[in-house]
Design goal:
heterotrimer; A alpha/beta (about 1050); B mainly alpha (about 220); C mainly alpha (about 450); A: alpha/beta; 7-stranded mixed beta sheet; about 20% strand; C: globular
């Protein structure tokens, strides 16, 4: 929040800023030599403002420079003095104006929200969403129940995407060579370009996009290529699914799109795949997976999950058996498993005797037996960042195990034109180098920042005569292009996209473009010479070409309304292993990794690259909600780190926050970065995880200069794993002696307990029975195991007669067996309840504002712990300790059992927070809510007060939703029905782990959940009688698994 | 010795009385001050009660609702369905005033608004703070008449605030609704007069309309 | 009456006149000693620091302090309790010892009371400052309002408001009533007209008539009777702020007695800390004699032992109760991140004061001064331990945190000491620090008294 008012001090997005002289820069880079490490062009250029950044990350933090008291402080002064003047209690309300419409639009009823269906696109893959709109202002994203990729839920990215719409740092004008220009000027420039290109059939015209699944855009580009046959279309993005595609091609002879149906799978094996969190369809996968974690009731058959992975992921935390091995060992593991299941692939060496180190004896055998036993009802999934060889094996295993067609179906690719991004960008890069590229249109994406460093993409880009960039921000790439055109946000655009299973959904705008942005559709149309065509025209034009039995208009209406094109899911294709693939056709396995499988190797260190769990590939770097969302497992905010296992940390002699220098030498060149270490329990030893997306130099006032840029170390040939056993690299990790402050929302203090490393917090958490865990057998033997461990004092013990709740009485239940700690609830809550962000410094002080947090605890040896998640909202205790101590009755209990917090009555003694055993209350220590930035005003939920400085706040069970549901019911003279009140966290949860409702209604879902024998509450012995209760976590281990496993 | 002390007499005897009076007086003075503050905070100066506001167009509820008998909902369309009663768009005015009083200079702002598509900026009369979430629809559906809160609108040539809209005022009705509710049929009747036996009628209606006395905070504060 | 073996409460050879001269001259003599200006300058500088810290606090919010979730209270409440505690000795000395007819109290009660007032003034600031929205503090008072709301009388913070304000009022009255005869003396002895008028105004027409003296005695006695229970009640109520909550380390029934004892402990320590330099500086050794210091030392020893017992019971209770949270709390105090403070506290409050068992120590001014300082520090640490270590690791380990004071925390703390000293310096300069009238009462008048 300190950062939202920092225009005075930060001028990166100010166009008047002096541009970097690139020739001088290149010169400096040369004489700096290969040894010199640099993170960004600006650092190299060493401009004034860059130095300013490095030294002053939080320009307006009052703690730091009381002198530089900016405008906001003045406002606070005024606020304070005004309030003091109000002491007499007779402040006069200012005169307000009412400004009605001149001509009222029919559909809008003032004060009532409307919902529209549209599509959120990430990595090219669409997820259907319903967007809440107040008086024409989109304010909240919900999932679209009709969309297969959503079923009503979304992930954190879709939730936070609404903030990007209102981001004050979005690019707002057309830029030409660093100066403000106009779209008209751009159009005339293109017109000239077209005349130059016409004779040469578009020779030298290149278009670089990210993965495109949009049928319309695909069609448009094909049309363009018809006009300019010599032109080329390149697709590349940092976190692509190249390996998945390539793996299927290797296995089946052509590109395929595997679609998993985990609701049908009894046994699931994940080969380094975080499929519950970070893959297209993860939302749906989480839902299907969770639907099989239910052990209540008879006949419920719980699935079993094996995870073999390098890092600690949310998927790993859900595993019944987890094995942590280096990412570079996973291929060998896959080969060994294939061997154990007698799956042979010509061209791939046998895994015999090449079982990687760290795999317990008989582990693979036991796993293989289990998979065999569940022929046809098991599934093997490989991680997107794994070598495509692993994908090939995974698909081969699926076929061999009869999963193909049952738990895994294969469809045609969802991409408009499936491409291997790596080869695509390499070709572009080489052509640019050879001066073959006359004009380059970068439609979306930020290759200058994200392209693997060893491509020298930046250097080659500057050889192109005409460089145009379409993007939401004036970012690193925009800076180096002649033209930059602001892109529209998807809530401002027309378009379409395919879901993970190929289902098509339309994108319709909720609001007119705030800054006259353009879509890729329109830019392509301009290249085709149709500057007049709008996105709307183009999308309709494309769809008019298709055949519809009920006619186009019917199709258009229903598709827009439902948010999906019915029956557009790609149909399942029968597959058979086809290894006729020649060396030329496949580009990875055969020529890059002759030695596969690589065979056991000494504990050499590897560096693994991953998309960041909250800001992905960097496109969300300026999104405050995502920056401040505690990353799963580590609970870190506002930074990326070099993540290592406890053992490896010991080996390197580093602790949390120590800065290490990581240098990778390949051939002549050496690249390096300095990164703070974070120790992650359960990560594979001798493996360092670096997350992409940070170290942006032109992200905006929040994202710029935060963290380090891991892609500096990435190698184009194998972007995800850098280890000598796979490609000849020389990896050096050295301590620098520096330390770097990191902001984690949960403390982790390591101690020695029961003869091995454990975490003090977790040890206490389990002593205090906060997380109840049992195995399936234990549960079958004694269903009430969770309740028996704790005891709730009987009501009669109290001196006072308990309050009798008539009518509604609201309650919540959270199923720990389903929750996979994906944080969607946290961000949804933030969006629904106008929760401010506070910035890194404040998080470090322990002042984060999230009403709902996901506690993370580890059980057992930190080298291979079990990981547990526990979402903690307000408990809404029936005997709430916070209520008695408030001197002004600002927090009180409602007859419906809500623990109410009344901001406007709060005087801010913080006594309630001190006295809250669950510490779910949050305090506005400073003026966190941004009352200054105009563009953020329309974002706010009008039904929730925006809290000012000095007041307490906390989870309200989304009381605004309860009230409106009650009012609607009352007006129709009926009771509120079960499921009519859906809290933001419940609505968004992909795993459906949260349910809310009236516990007086015995038929309500929440009552049924609370009736489960697994139901328990936190700290029952305090007799607070929480309304939020938990369902114990169950594990479903394989009895004949060796006990000594890692994880 | 003692006598000596009495020589350098600084204060006249009368000051003793002053001292006494001021000591007792202080008590009353403080009390008076408190009372004054309280009075002020309830005075029209602060609450705007009974202060008619000048409007760009001197719109008369007296004429339209009272004499012509236009239904409240003709202009405040969303009052039964939405939290906000809704302010009429210029369109609504023009439905009639494109036919009658087309030349009236008084109505020029309306016509110009319609002509050049610029909203009329009315001065707000009834307002609650931002942290109060008032919902018109539920009140009118439960038999709270327009005039119960907005006063004798039918007699207002220029509109003024009829009640303080202060919390204690809201609570008065929320604590005992029977004192104010009326039959649903009468809700939009601007001339409705409270019957002599309001209390017993009220109690019946409270039962009939299932009116709860909602005084928990989140009813209005969220 | 001082019995034979006790040293006298006033050195021999004094007459009414000489007593009056000696004391009143401190106020009325021409020119102020350099030392006073020096001390006052420092105190005032610190007071300005407080002003700055508070202005910044109001500009930015309590966020300028180190407080957070879980540690919602930090220096603010620590200082509040500490100052209130210090504010105890004054009234105790003047009221309770008056009722107990302890004549030795005479020479120290005046500035002990003054100290009380100033300490309470400092203490009173913190409940206001620590609020997120201090300008709404008046919502804690029950008064008819347009919201139709009352304060929440179940909350100890509301009790605080009444307890502290009552205590402040009564102490002020008590102190002022006691001053009246001396103000009259000053009025009569003052040379400058301005002084005459001001002192005269404050003396409220005191003529020292029999009636006046009679009323004076009555009033003092009544106020003493009124103040005595307040001494106990204030800190009891303050202790409820913690005892009423559910937090391990707060939720304990032993708090009221142990807080009151602690308060008197720190109160006497502070009186000692002030008395020793003052008597040295103004050469009042004859009035504030070794006997006073020794008595105070004894009181400190006694109350110190009560406090020690409090700590002991707290620990015992934690283990005896078998309550896991309580046990963890104690172990965390012993070995947690703030363990050092805990052990320093034990040293300051329990170990070191035991030296006062020895008469040698009790009669050694320098050592007594040192001990009194140590105890002041110790008592501050006690409050820090209670407030911070109890909060920073409570029930849910996920929300455990640390508390680090910022420079504004320190500025506010040091600043209030500045306020305290400033007031004290002004008091020393403009009012008699020892009750002239009562000292006169100690001057031996009968022959056998003279013989002693």
């Amino acid at each position: 929040m300190q950062k939202t008012d920092s225009q005075e001090t930060m001028t990166t997005d100010d166009n008047s800023k002096e541009r970097i002289d690139l020739d001088a820069l290149r010169a400096r880079a040369k004489d700096a030599g290969p040894q010199r490490m640099w993170r960004s062009l600006e650092e190299l250029a060493d401009t004034e403002e860059h130095r300013a950044f490095l030294h002053n990350e939080f320009p307006n933090d009052p703690e730091k420079d009381p002198a530089g008291t900016p405008r906001r402080e003045v406002l606070k002064w005024m606020a304070a003095s005004a309030a003091l003047a109000g002491l007499s209690g007779c402040t006069k309300m200012p005169e307000q104006k009412i400004v009605p419409y001149v001509r009222a639009p029919e559909e809008i009823i003032p004060g009532k929200p409307l919902f529209y269906a549209t599509t959120f696109v990430q990595g090219g893959v669409g997820t259907g969403v319903l967007v809440e709109s107040h008086m024409g202002r989109p304010t909240k994203i919900e999932g679209n129940p009709l969309h297969p990729g959503s079923l009503g839920a979304t992930d954190i990215f879709a939730q936070a995407s609404i903030l990007d719409l209102y981001d004050p740092d979005r690019s707002q004008v057309v830029i030409h060579e660093g100066r403000i220009s106009s779209y008209a000027a751009f159009l005339s420039a293109i017109a000239d370009l077209r005349t130059n290109l016409a004779p040469t059939k578009g020779k030298g015209l290149r278009i670089l996009t990210e993965t495109i699944t949009s049928p319309t855009l695909g069609w448009q580009i094909q049309e363009l290529l018809k006009e300019f046959p010599e032109a080329r279309w390149h697709q590349w993005e940092p976190c692509s699914r190249d390996n998945v595609r390539e793996g299927t091609k290797r296995a089946f002879g052509r590109y395929m799109n595997p679609v998993y149906q985990f609701d049908k799978a009894d046994v699931i094996l994940s080969l380094d795949a975080d499929f519950l969190y970070s893959s297209p369809g993860a939302v749906r996968y989480a839902r299907d997976f969770a639907s099989r974690r239910n052990a209540d009731g008879t006949g419920a058959k719980m699935n079993r999950l094996y995870v073999v992975e390098q890092g600690s992921t949310t998927t790993g935390a859900m595993a019944d058996h987890r094995l942590a091995i280096r990412a570079s060992d996973v291929p060998d593991f896959a080969a060994a498993l294939a061997d154990a299941l007698d799956v042979q692939l010509p061209g791939l060496g046998s895994g015999k005797g090449k079982t990687p180190a760290g795999v317990p004896a008989n582990w693979i055998e036991a796993l293989a037996r289990d998979l065999r036993a569940h022929r046809g009802s098991c599934a093997v999934i490989a991680g997107e960042q794994q070598l495509e060889a692993v994908h090939t094996l995974a698909q081969a295993l699926n076929v061999a195990l009869g999963a193909a067609g049952n738990t895994v179906i294969y469809t045609d690719p969802i991409e408009a034109s499936p491409t291997i991004g790596y080869t695509s960008i390499v070709h572009l890069n080489d052509d640019m180098d050879d001066g073959k590229v006359q004009a380059l249109f970068i439609l979306g994406g930020n290759p200058v920042y994200a392209a693997p460093d060893d491509l020298n993409f930046t250097r080659n880009l500057l050889k192109v005569n005409f460089r145009a960039h379409l993007g939401p921000y004036e970012d690193e790439t925009a800076e180096l292009c002649h033209w930059h055109v602001p892109a529209t946000h998807y809530l401002e655009s027309w378009g379409d996209a395919r879901a993970y299973d190929g289902t098509i959904s339309l994108i319709q705008p909720l609001i007119a473009p705030l800054y006259d942005g353009k879509t890729a559709h329109e830019i392509i149309a301009v290249l085709e010479g149709h500057a007049d065509k709008t996105g709307y025209d183009l999308v309709r034009e494309h769809w008019k070409l298709q055949k519809f039995d009920k006619g186009f208009d019917a199709f258009w209406e229903t598709s827009l309304h439902d948010g999906v094109v019915s029956g557009s899911a790609l149909s399942s294709v029968l597959v058979k292993i086809d290894s006729s693939l020649t060396k030329e056709e496949s580009h990875f396995v055969l020529d890059h990794f002759p030695g596969f499988p690589f065979g056991p190797k000494a504990d050499t260190l590897e560096v693994v690259f991953r998309p960041d769990p909250t800001i992905y590939d960097g496109q969300f770097a300026n999104n405050g909600w995502l920056q401040e969302t505690p990353k799963p497992i580590t609970k870190l905010t506002w930074d990326n780190t070099a993540q290592v296992s406890p053992a490896t940390a010991e080996k390197l002699g580093v602790a949390n926050g120590n800065v290490v220098q990581i240098v990778i030498r390949k051939g002549g060149g050496a690249r390096g970065i300095e990164a703070p270490v974070w120790i992650v329990p359960g990560q594979a030893d001798n493996s360092i995880t670096l997350h992409l997306g940070y170290g942006r130099t032109r992200a905006g006032r929040l994202g710029t200069g935060v963290g380090f840029n891991a892609s500096t170390l990435q190698l184009g040939a194998e972007p995800w794993i850098a280890v000598e056993s796979i490609i000849p690299v020389d990896l050096k990790v050295t301590k620098t002696g520096k330390t770097y402050p990191l902001a984690a929302t949960q403390h982790h203090s390591m101690i020695d307990a029961n003869g091995h490393k454990e975490e003090l917090e977790s040890v206490n958490a389990f002593q205090r029975e906060l997380v109840q865990v049992g195995t399936l057998e234990e549960f079958r033997r004694n269903p009430k195991f969770a309740q028996e461990k704790t005891e709730t004092p009987p009501k009669e013990l109290s001196l006072y007669p308990g309050y009798e709740y008539k009518g509604y009485s609201w309650g919540m239940a959270i199923d720990l067996n389903k929750c996979n700690g994906c944080n969607a609830c946290v961000v949804a809550c933030q969006a629904e309840n106008n929760i401010p962000i506070v910035g890194k410094e404040e998080v470090m002080r322990g002042r984060e504002m999230h009403w709902l947090r996901v506690d993370t605890y580890f059980r057992g040896d930190l080298d291979a712990p079990e990981t547990y998640f526990e979402p903690v909202p307000c408990m809404h205790c029936e005997n709430a300790p916070c209520e008695g101590v408030c001197p002004v009755a600002a927090t009180v209990h409602s007859p419906e059992g809500l623990n109410e917090m009344i901001y406007n009555r709060c005087v801010g003694t913080r006594y309630c927070s001190n006295n809250c055993p669950y510490k779910v209350r949050r305090f506005n220590f400073k003026l966190y809510s941004d009352f200054v930035t105009q563009s953020l005003v329309p974002l706010r939920n009008p039904n929730v007060s925006v809290r000012s400085r000095g007041v307490m706040e906390k989870c309200t069970y989304c009381v605004q939703r309860i009230q409106s549901a009650k009012i609607e019911a009352e007006k129709q003279d009926r009771e509120v029905r079960d499921g009519e009140v859906v809290t933001a966290c419940e609505a968004v949860c992909p795993a459906q782990a949260i349910t809310f409702g009236n516990i007086n209604d015995k038929q309500s879902r929440v009552s049924k959940w609370k009736a489960s024998p697994r139901d328990y509450t936190l700290l029952p012995e305090l007799n607070t009688r929480p309304r939020t209760s938990y369902l114990a976590r169950l594990r479903n281990p394989n009895p004949d698994m060796p006990k000594s496993e890692k994880g | 010795m003692r006598r000596l002390e009495f020589m350098g007499q600084v204060f006249h005897r009368s000051t003793n009385t002053i001292a006494r009076v001021s000591i007792y007086g202080a008590v009353f003075l403080i009390a008076a001050l408190g009372w004054a503050v309280y009075e002020l905070s309830a005075s029209p100066y602060v609450t705007d009660v009974n202060v008619a506001k000048d409007q760009p167009v001197p719109f008369s509820h007296k004429h339209h609702a009272g004499e012509l008998g236009l239904d409240c909902r003709y202009c405040h369309t969303s009052v039964e369905t939405s939290p906000s009663a809704g302010m009429p768009p210029t369109q609504t005015c023009m439905t009639c005033h494109s036919q009658i009083w087309v030349k009236s200079p008084m109505l020029e702002p309306v016509r110009s608004s319609y002509r050049d598509d610029k909203s009329i900026q009315w001065v707000r009369v009834n307002a609650v703070p931002d942290f109060v979430y008032f919902n018109h629809s539920i009140h009118v559906n439960k038999g709270v008449g327009c005039t119960t809160c907005h006063g004798p609108v039918a007699d207002m040539p220029l509109t003024w605030r009829a009640n303080t809209l202060q919390m204690s005022w809201c609570l008065d009705c929320h604590r005992n609704p029977e004192k104010y509710v009326r039959p649903r049929s009468e809700v939009f009747n601007p001339h409705y007069a409270e019957p002599a036996n309001q209390l017993e009628i009220g109690l019946e209606l409270v039962k009939k309309y299932k009116i709860q006395s909602l005084t928990n905070c989140s009813t209005c504060h969220r | 009456m001082g019995s034979a073996q006790n040293p006298p409460v006033i050195e021999p050879g004094y007459t009414y006149a000489s007593v009056t001269d000696k004391i009143s001259s401190i106020v009325l003599r021409r020119g102020t000693p350099r030392g006073w200006y020096f001390g006052f300058a420092i105190a005032f500088a610190l007071l300005m620091l407080l002003t700055y810290a508070v202005l910044w606090l109001f500009a930015i919010g309590v966020g300028v302090w180190g407080v957070n979730v879980p540690v919602g209270w930090g220096f603010d409440i620590v200082n509040f309790v500490w100052w209130i505690g210090i504010g105890h000795a004054g009234t105790l000395i003047s009221a309770i010892l008056l009722l107990l007819r302890q004549r030795w109290r005479t020479s120290i009660n005046r500035f002990a009371e003054a100290m009380t007032l100033f300490a309470v003034a400092c203490a009173g600031m913190f409940p206001l400052l620590h609020m997120g929205r201090a300008w709404l503090a008046y919502w804690l008072l029950p008064y008819p309002n347009t919201m139709g709301l009352w304060p929440q009388f179940r909350s100890p913070l509301v009790w605080d408001v009444f307890a502290v304000s009552t205590y402040a009022t009564v102490s002020l009255l008590f102190w002022f009533v006691g001053l009246i005869p001396d103000l009259a003396t000053l009025r009569d002895r003052a040379k400058k007209r301005a002084a005459k008028v001001i002192y005269g105004f404050l003396a409220m027409g005191w003529r020292g008539s029999a009636v006046h003296w009679h009323r004076y005695e009555m009033a003092s006695l009544l106020l003493a009777g009124l103040a005595t229970p307040l001494v106990i009640s204030v800190h009891t109520v303050v202790s409820f702020d913690f005892a009423v909550s559910v937090i391990p380390g707060w939720h304990t029934t032993i708090f009221p007695p142990y807080f009151v004892a602690g308060a008197i402990y720190s109160g006497f320590a502070m009186v000692m800390t002030l008395a020793i330099p003052i008597r040295k500086f103004y050469g009042l050794e004859d009035f504030i004699t070794m006997r006073h210091l020794e008595n105070m030392a004894k009181v400190m020893l006694a109350t110190g032992l009560i406090v020690a017992y409090g700590y002991m019971m707290e620990t015992f209770g934690a283990f005896y109760s078998g309550n896991g949270y309580e046990k963890f709390m104690i172990l965390n105090r012993w070995g947690g991140p703030y363990a050092l403070f805990y052990w320093v506290l034990i040293a300051c409050n329990i170990v070191i004061p035991q030296f006062m068992w020895f008469k040698k120590v009790r009669t050694n001014v320098a050592v007594l001064f040192a001990i009194s300082l140590v105890v002041n520090i110790g008592m501050w640490l006690e409050r820090f331990i209670i407030v911070v270590t109890s909060l920073h690791r409570d029930f849910l380990p996920s929300s455990w945190g640390m508390y680090t004071p910022t420079k504004y925390d320190w500025a506010t703390y040091v600043g209030t000491i500045g306020l305290f000293l400033t007031l004290l310096f002004l008091f020393i300069r403009f009012l008699p620090i020892i009750s002239i009238s009562e000292m006169r009462g100690l001057v031996p008048s009968t022959p056998e008294e003279k013989k002693r």
